[in-house]
Amino acid sequence: MCKAFIFDLDGVITDTAELHFQAWLRMANEEGYYFDRKINEQLRGVSRRTSLSIILAGTKLSEIQTTVLMARKNKYYLEQLESLSEKDILPGIRSLLLELNARGIKVAVASASKNARYVLYQLGLIPLFDAICDGWSVVRSKPEPDIFIHAAGQLRVNTCDCIVMEDAEAGIHAARAAGMQVVGIGPSARVGQADWHFNDTATFDLTTVLENAEPNMMPG
């Protein structure tokens, strides 16, 4: 029985991927590191520190240098977030959240982003969530299952009673490692390992998922 829905943020609730890309690109150009959209795809669903490590491509920096670059990228990203509003909610998501609330199914966000709460505030969605779990909530980020296990704990439900909506391969691995079933949003090449696959949020069908959810799925 599904007692909770746990959402990733970027690419599921809103698409801030382009904002992240522009912020990383600006930082990389300033520092002389090569960065393009192909490399950017590797950053989907992972932490800021891991993202920077991918961009550095083996270049070793001190902890101070690493912290400075992460902070600068985040500054550029936050500047762009100021223009984010309800119009940036992906199709079908607000109505889905309202339907889950009406059905008594708990909802949470589980995102690697340390700006998740601010993004949800800008979108006007905070009142629709029972829990917000972000990059500050756990030490190990996706593909480790920690943030999803933490979210289930915040909602006071068993992990086997949760369904996750994700758009990243790392997130799908994390959710399955937590013993949760997963809805994949995006191209099958990226999210094909999910239990259900939809090309985008607009085509998501809650009834289909709930009717076919396995009861008490246990970690494999």
From TrEMBL:
GO molecular function, one term: beta-phosphoglucomutase activity
BP term (GO), one: carbohydrate metabolic process
Site feature location: Important for catalytic activity and assists the phosphoryl transfer reaction to Asp8 by balancing charge and orienting the reacting groups: S111, K142
Catalytic activity: beta-D-glucose 1-phosphate = beta-D-glucose 6-phosphate
Cofactor entry: Mg(2+)
SUPFAM superfamilies xrefs: HAD-like
EC numbers for this chain: 5.4.2.6
Family: Belongs to the HAD-like hydrolase superfamily. CbbY/CbbZ/Gph/YieH family.
Protein name: Beta-phosphoglucomutase
Native source organism of the sequence: Aeromonas enteropelogenes
